[in-house]
Amino acid sequence: MLINIKNLKKDFKTGDVVTKVLHGLSFTIDKGDFVSIMGPSGSGKSTLMHIIGLLDRASSGLYELEGVDVTKMNDNQLAELRNKKIGFVFQSFNLLPRTTVLDNVILPLSYASESVDAKERGKEVLKSVELSHRLHYYTNQISGGEKQRVAIARALVNKPSIIFADEPTGNLDSKSGVQVMEILQKLNDEGNTIILVTHETFTAEHAKRIIKIHDGLIVEDQKVINRRVAKKGEALK
Amino acid sequence: MKSILKQSFSMAIKSLLATKARSFLTMLGIIIGVGAVILIMSVGAGAQSLILNQIESLGTNLLVVLPGASEKDQPPPQAMGITVTTLTYDDYLSVKDPAKVPNVMGIAIFSKNVGTTSWKSASYDTSISGTNASYRDVEGGNLLEGRFFTEEEERNLSKVVVLGATVKKELFGDSKAIGEFIKIKKHSFEIIGVMEKRGNVAFQDYDDQVFVPVRTVQKIISGVNHLGFMRVKINDRENIDQAIKDIEFTLRDKHNIDDQSGESDDFSIRSGNEAMQLFETVTNSLKYFLAMMAALSLIVGGIGIMNIMLVSVTERTREIGLRKAVGAKRSHLMVQFLLEAITITLFGGVIGIIGGVATSYIVSLVANYLHYKWDFVVTPSSIIAGLIVSAGVGLFFGIYPANKASKLDPISALRHE
To answer: Is A41 left (phi over 0), alpha (psi -120 to 50) or beta?
Structure first.
């Protein structure tokens, strides 16, 4: 069991006003799974992703990552764990400007405690997202789809336990979107655990399992029966 | 951590180059501040060397005996226009006695006045230096023609005069002066010599004066009995302390002062070294004061750096969020932004140092071109200090923005538009 969450709650305090966002969620995710978290905006799916992604802490409840309780960890411990265990892919890519593709990809390695041959590792992951020919391009010289593949390569570079993809196709045309989903499915086939956050049913159905959230509660958690398989050249929508 | 440093440094250079105009304007305060400090320190040292060279050319084994008591670190009463009459020709004769004060190579005594000199229809206002026959042993200076007066003429109240080069030129032009008689304050003096042109030394114009035997000035021109001061040349620097003691003892004896502590003295002795030290103290404090004023612009520059770093933190909020998401700790971001601030200020510091040194060099070239003996002085310590101070400014003024960057919440930073 990779992720074990029990009765997870999250409140936000603004002055005297307390807003309850997550009302007690419980679920587990196994290694090698591909889970879509779905829900409309305001449902709490982003908050949940931030907590699972160790960017935020739960107000109460249990969260074990690979058997380790992370709820009591301090900022530095969480940063270290994010560096080792988690790879993020964002809707808006978040690549560094004025920096080459390769340097962007190896950014997480500069914060890693173990030393690896960063350039070699960077080239390796860029090859796996089919961007070997763009190593020394600057990020303003490549297309949106390529940018997102760079972001995926960056998420992979530390060999994380989980890859988080937050609306990864949201800013892409459908052709590039298909390519991104194809890569995510391939990575999952290779054994990577992927958590995909989306509000589109179509995209969500590329996963093996969908967790639907509404008003801070899980309203549905089931396997995808007719799983979609992304193929190059097909449109996403 | 090493890769973070390297990466931060290259990142800093990149963002500097990406916004060249902004970076340059940001650096300008540091450039001006460091440049001005280097320039002031260097020009100050050059000007100091110019004057010290001149004082030194007078000889550092000189003692000055002044009438009246004065503290060593304060100006003598004469400097404030007070006349003290406690030094006389007899005192000179005692100090001159080798049995009382050995090690003396020469003594020059002075009783000065100012007055009009005239020859035929020409007249010229100048300084009348009453001095003794051994004047040139102490003060130097060569005769262009004729001779200096003798000890006999000194004692006999002879009315003879030696002209300084300027006076000769003003009164006689190119015509012959030796053997002619000029009038000084209505008394007639025979010209027995003309001095060579000597120029200014330590603010004193050696050419604009006439030399008359000291007793003649005292009795006939001024009607006084005291000396202005005397200069005593000692044979070796090492004997100066002993000579001071000997002169003190002799003069106390002569003036019937029993107190050997020096508190009751009616004279004072100063050495050239002291004068140089005094001069150095005064000019140093002036130099450091000016350098401090210039350093103020470093503070202004530092505030500029802080401002631009805060702008940079805001502009790069998403980048900061991303770095946190991929595992950067607070300390990583702190180091990164501090290093960027230091890179900017250090860069500015280097440009400032180059500019300051170049300007100082030009100043020294111009001064030397104008025939001043001006040393080009840039000490390595001032360059090192310039580098350390500029890095320090970056460090100090970078702390607030860097801390702000490191404290950003990753989630809101990632959402920042």
So the answer is: beta
CA angle, B304 then B305 then B307, to 5°: 65
Whether A62 shows a pLDDT value over 90: the answer reads: yes
Number of H helices, E strands in chain B: 13, 12
Q: What is the ipTM of this complex?
A: 0.92
Q: How many angstroms away from the CA of A141 is the closest CA of chain B?
A: 16
B4 closest CB neighbour out of A79, A83, A110: A110
Full-model pTM? 0.70
Q: Which residue has the tokens 């003429």?
A: B153
Residue B397 vs residues A156, A175, A229, B52: alpha-carbon distances, Å: 37, 49, 55, 40
Which residues, including other chains, have CB under 8 Å from residue B222's CB and lie 6 or more apart?
Answer: B111, B113, B130
Cα distances from B214 to residues A26, A150, B115, B295, in angstroms, run 114, 98, 15, 53
CA-angle at A53, arms to A52 and A56, nearest 5°: 80
At residue B262, the pLDDT reads: 79
Lookup: tokens for B149: 């007066």
Mutate to test the interface with A, among B326, B332, B340, B408 (most CBs of A within 10 A): B326
Tell me: the pLDDT tens digits for B35-85? Answer: 998 998 888 888 888 877 777 666 678 888 888 887 666 666 666 667 788
Cβ–Cβ pairs < 8 A, chains A and B = 60
Residue A150, burial from CB neighbour count under 10 angstroms (0-12, 13-18, 19+): buried
Residue count of chain A: 237
Give the pLDDT score at B3.
66
Q: Is 80 exceeded by the pLDDT of residue B400? A: yes
Residue A237 pLDDT exceeds 60? no
A176-213 confidence digits (pLDDT tens)? 899 999 999 999 999 999 999 998 898 999 999 999 99
Contacts of A154 in chain B (CB under 8 A): 326
The C-alpha atoms of residue B139 and residue B404 are separated, in whole angstroms, by 69
* Among A83, A81, A90, A80, residue whose Cα is nearest residue A151: A90
CB of B163 closer than 8 Å to CB of B193: yes
Beta bridge partners of A64: A4, A69
